[in-house]
Amino acid sequence: MAWFQHTLELPAFRRGFHLITPRIVEALPQLSQIKIGLLHVYIQHTSASLSINENADADVPADLEASFNAIAPEDFDYRHTIEGPDDMPAHVKAALLGSSVSVPVRGGRLLLGSWQGIYLCEHRNRAGRRKLVLTIEGEIKG
Questions:
Q1: 3-state secondary structure of 102
Q2: Domains, the chain
């Protein structure tokens, strides 16, 4: 068994759901060495999250954003408001979606479904760069 770990710093993204699968794969050259294993992706922030969802239709990220805005609106009577009206809704959305995803690996490839991708879910209006910890555990080819 082998372990590989890398921190990927993403640029600032606008609010919404952003497909980041290609960035993750590019940051992990060791992925090609894995016969069978698991990739764990963890975001080190509390106002953004990760999700695996459909990557084929551009309407899906827009609909997800609209749905989560309805679930956690900015005009709700939150107590935690010191960081702006988008901060507490961002925490609610991140709590619902989660801070990590895991994807099986086989033959040096992520075993995502045909229409699946990994998304950075940016919940702030003016967020900064985001850091992801990418950890692969697996059996090396050979």
A1: strand
A2: 2-140 (2.60.120.460)
